[in-house]
Amino acid sequence: xxxxxxxxxxxxxxxxxxxxxxxxxxxxxxxxxxxxxxxxxxxxxxxxxxxxxxxxxxxxxxxxxxxxxxxxxxxxxxxxxxxxxxxxxxxxxxxxxxxxxxxxxxxxxxxxxxxxxxxxxxxxxxxxxxxxxxxxxxxxxxxxxxxxxxxxxxxxxxxxxxxxxxxxxxxxxxxxxxxxxxxxxxxxxxxxxxxxxxxxxxxxxxxxxxxxxxxxxxxxxxxxxxxxxxxxxxxxxxxxxxxxxxxxxxxxxxxxxxxxxxxxxxxxxxxxxxxxxxxxxxxxxxxxxxxxxxxxxxxxxxxxxxxxxxxxxxxxxxxxxxxxxxxxxxxxxxxx
Length: 336
What we know:
Rossmann fold; 6-stranded mixed β-sheet; 15% strand; LacI/GalR-like_sensor; LacI family DNA-binding transcriptional regulator; transcription cis-regulatory region binding; Peripla_BP_I
């Protein structure tokens, strides 16, 4: 079967190839009736425009690159899926590449995307992102991991954690442990500041019992499990009655640590996570978490790249509010 071309579509529709092209590019000069006739014929013939040819003519590839540190992290997977949907709503596709959280690989991925003539890049930067040079003239939007000196879009990590810890305080918890992220991570430090903010804002009669209980860990399950063991390996009257983890994966690992130690959740220990990934709703008991507005962040990043939304000013990022999702892993503390 020979390949159907734009000329066949134009002949059957009784219009010029230029008119067919305007229909394909959603040009406002095309009437609703003509658009319906041409698109009907395109569908009947199974005509597929050649994207490379369209790109050469229009100087627009209708491709957006996205570079993330890791595809195995459920948060980044959801970010990619949300960006793909947002791009599709504007008639664009995405190309996904991973940097493995390494600056040299990140620079290589950006070069590859630039050579493929993408119209812009959504970048979750590596933690040593500042060591690479970005190409000039290509729109790049930094998301999630906001870097000093760059504009970006993210969830309000600091305020989100503060809201979560305040939820635990309202339940009556005064020994609240915290599993932070890696010390070199910007979001991790923002979340740690949110935890400390909440402790400082406690009323005089509700001050933290003893010094802060903090364990630094990577954002994954096993690190959360190890951090949970560290925080819970102390006498009952000294260990935390609640633990806030900087990621849902950490929180789920901490739940496992509590289970292995015979500490029931939430009867003897409350646990909260951060991110709001789908897996959080599948645990038993269901995890209480602070949800990041991942879809909003992705949609805003795409809109900024396509000039549908004003870009954030330098060092003045667009921040989206987080929300507490009540699950089954938090409750008032038991008496010692």
